[in-house]
Specification:
The chain is an alpha/beta fold. The chain folds into two domains: 10-49, no CATH class; 58-155, GMP Synthetase, Chain A, domain 3, CATH 3.30.300. It has two helices and nine strands; from the N terminus they run βββαββββαββ. The strands form three sheets. Strands 1-2-3 form a three-stranded antiparallel β-sheet, with no helix packed on it. The protein is elongated. This is Peroxiredoxin.
């Protein structure tokens, strides 16, 4: 039987400069992302779309979700497999293509995790487990393009 997990987020637009959306240039794209019992996230659109570069934009959060989901599954499988990870950093990259009508979509995401393991004997299996993590990642399973990963595994 499939289990369902439900999520809720409240997005509140904070960019009304007094005249609402009476003109494309007269409002800010600023908003807050609120999830119960968690710190709010200040958001905006990408600066290419008149957004505030000091705030998180949906594209960055999307990329971060893919990277975070992969990491969490990866750490889970390493723990199950006896691979001792002592450090994990991912420099994730993504490409979004904007179409002539102004819409767009992500065409690729590549994860670049650098993983440190406790022993040299763990390196090969540590590399292999990225494939399994990719297969199980809830977010990667929800997108319409492949999520690539190019891991580097080091020893402590």
């Amino acid at each position: 039987m499939n289990r369902e997990h439900h999520y809720k987020a409240t997005i509140h637009w904070t960019g009304n400069k007094g005249t609402g959306t009476d003109n494309y240039r007269n409002y800010e794209r600023s908003h807050t992302i609120e999830i119960e019992n968690k710190s709010p996230i200040e958001g905006s659109s990408d600066p290419a779309f008149r957004g505030d570069k000091t705030k998180h934009n949906p594209e960055e959060l999307f990329l971060s979700s893919l990277s975070s989901c992969h990491m969490l599954w990866y750490l889970h499988f390493c723990a199950e497999d006896g691979i001792i990870v002592t450090d994990y950093t991912d420099e994730a990259t993504g490409i979004m293509t904007e179409t002539p009508d102004g819409s767009g979509h992500f065409t690729s995401v590549t994860l670049h995790p650098t993983v440190t393991v406790a022993e040299e004997s763990m390196i090969e299996r540590a590399k292999e487990l990225h494939h399994k993590a990719n297969q199980f990642c809830f977010i990667a399973n929800s997108v319409n393009f492949p999520v690539q990963h190019i891991p580097v595994v080091l020893i402590k």
